[in-house]
Structures are given as structure tokens and as C-alpha cells.
Design goal:
The chain is an alpha/beta fold. It has two domains: about 170 residues, Rossmann fold, CATH 3.40.50.1000; about 100 residues, HAD superfamily/HAD-like (Rossmann fold, 3-Layer(aba) Sandwich). It is about 35% helix and about 20% strand. It contains nine helices and 16 strands. The strands form four sheets. The chain has a seven-stranded parallel β-sheet with strand order 1-16-13-12-2-3-4, with helices on both faces. Strands 6-5-7-8-11 form a five-stranded parallel β-sheet, sandwiched between helices. The chain is globular and about 55 Å long.
């Protein structure tokens, strides 16, 4: 199950680049985990290049604004690559008549592209950034809409592969849950964010733009989400620092402490082998 570390300083010097998850590692959607930002700031001071890699459906400048509002300082990272950024390429390559499935604040994902926003009945592709109201809705609320698209063989482009995310102390469904449901209904899904290769390629390119060439053996991924952060990093061949008090904490955290036997069993069930782990990035 990897080696437990107490401080990021123990391993930061082993790497040139860190690809760090955002939601669940740097903040919980409401407030920042201050020690995580302090750890990354210190590591950058010692020469580490930090690229934030997030499944947010927003483009990078919008996420930067969000991070500042929550309390994550610009000094904690060098670059940020979002699922929204890499998903724009899929949108540009797809049919031109698109329906935006998600809140209006995510409109930037299609702005500036050679596409036309249309109503659901006219759509030739669906750009899904989430739910219209993720506080109250589930994928089942969209059954009729999704079934109609599936019958017409309309592809769904998922801008956020996460199934759920922790907002404060609540679990909120994400676009990935919608995509999974559409897949079960027989629909076609297209995804570029974690755990898929395009977002890792874009993140490595961003790191090389900052510091030049480096081998992948000198890249560390940091994350807490098993189907996204963990699976994506391991499939890409990267060392992984697993943050155990993230989204899966209910599987093995008892009264605020990680039950190491339960954590080991969880990782074994998931066939995941992080090189390192710690409760929170600090």
C-alpha cells in the first residue's frame, strides 16, 4: 500500500514535477486546506515544478479565480490544466450543433469555438459540465432527455469525469455520473479528463514549458480520487502520493484516524499501488 510519510518534504526532492489534484487535496469546495498550499509553496522554493491537474469543467483562468476566492494562493503552483481545457479540443473536433448540459456559469467551455448552441431537440452533440442543479438532482432526473439522445445516437462529451465531489461535508454528483448513466443507457461518451491520457499529456507539456525536459520517472502525481487521480496516474506510469483523508475516507477513517489495515484492504480491492501515502498534504 506504499510508505506512509509525515511531511511532503520527505519526498519532494525525489522529483522534478508534481501533478497535483485540486478538489480534495487543496480544498473541499468551500475552504482551502492551508497546509497543502504551504507544502507546495515550500517545494516550489526548492525547485519543484507544480502543475495543478483538475477535472473541473471550467477553463484554467476561471479555476484560478475560484482558487483565489477559496484561499489557494497563486504561489502554490506554476500552471494549471483543467478537464475543461482538454475537453474544448473534443468539442472542436465534434459536431457543430451542441447542447450545454450544466449550469450557465460553464458557458466559457464552448465560447470561442466554431460551434452553435442549440436546444436539446436539435443537438448533434451534448457538452455535459454537470447538472442544472447539483444540489437537488441526480442522473435519474434526466432519464427522458438522455434516452432520447441515445436513440438518436448523439454523443455526450463529458467535461468533468468525476462521479462525485465533496462540497464541504456533502457529496455532490458531477458530470461523470451523468456520463456513466448515459453509457448504461447505450449512449456514446467522449472524455478527455482524468483518468484519460489527454489531460496527462497536456499537463506534462505544461510542466516542460516551465522547466524544459525531464523523464517521467521524475514526475509525482498527488491525488485522492480512486477512479480518476489514482487510476489515471498509475495507468500513465507515474509515481503516486495518495491522500487518504479525501473522497474515500469513509472506507477506512475511524474517528479522524486512518485504519491502516482497512486502507490496505481498500487499496487491494481497487488494485491500486501508490508509492507513498499521507492523510493530508502538508
Amino acid at each position: 500500500m506504499g510508505k506512509r510519510i509525515e511531511s511532503f518534504r520527505e519526498i519532494g526532492g525525489h522529483y522534478d514535477v508534481a501533478l497535483c489534484d485540486v478538489w480534495g487535496v487543496l480544498h473541499n469546495g468551500v475552504s482551502a486546506y492551508k497546509e497543502a498550499s504551504v507544502a507546495l509553496e515550500a517545494a516550489r522554493g526548492e525547485g519543484l515544478t507544480v502543475v495543478l491537474i483538475t477535472n473541473s469543467p471550467r477553463i484554467a483562468p476561471k479555476v484560478v479565480e475560484q482558487l483565489r476566492q477559496i484561499g489557494v494562493p497563486d504561489s502554490a503552483y506554476d500552471r494549471i490544466v483543467t478537464s475543461g481545457d482538454v475537453t474544448r479540443r473534443l468539442i472542436a473536433e465534434g459536431p457543430k450543433k451542441v447542447f450545454l448540459l450544466g449550469p450557465e456559469r460553464d458557458i466559457a467551455i464552448i465560447e470561442g469555438l466554431d460551434v452553435v448552441r442549440v436546444e436539446a431537440e436539435e443537438a448533434e452533440s451534448i457538452v455535459c459540465t454537470g447538472f442544472f442543479d447539483d444540489e437537488t438532482e441526480t442522473p435519474d432526473d434526466y432519464t427522458d432527455m438522455l434516452t432520447a439522445w441515445s436513440a438518436r445516437k448523439v454523443p455526450l462529451i463529458c467535461a468533468n469525469p468525476d462521479l462525485v465531489v465533496e462540497r464541504g461535508h456533502r457529496m455532490i454528483p458531477c458530470a461523470g455520473a451523468m456520463a456513466a448513466y448515459y453509457d448504461r443507457l447505450g449512449g456514446e461518451t467522449r472524455i478527455a479528463g482524468k483518468p484519460h491520457q489527454p489531460i496527462y499529456e497536456a499537463s506534462i507539456a505544461a510542466a516542460r514549458d516551465v522547466r524544459g525536459e525531464f523523464p517521467l520517472s521524475r514526475v509525482l502525481a498527488i491525488g485522492d480520487g480512486m477512479p480518476t487521480d489514482v487510476r489515471g496516474a498509475l495507468d500513465y506510469g507515474l509515481d503516486l502520493l495518495y491522500i487518504s483523508h479525501g473522497i474515500h475516507a469513509r472506507e477506512y477513517v475511524v474517528e479522524g484516524h486512518t485504519d491502516e489495515a482497512a486502507l490496505g484492504a481498500f487499496l487491494a480491492r481497487e488494485q491500486a499501488s501508490p508509492k507513498w501515502w499521507m492523510p493530508r498534504l502538508a
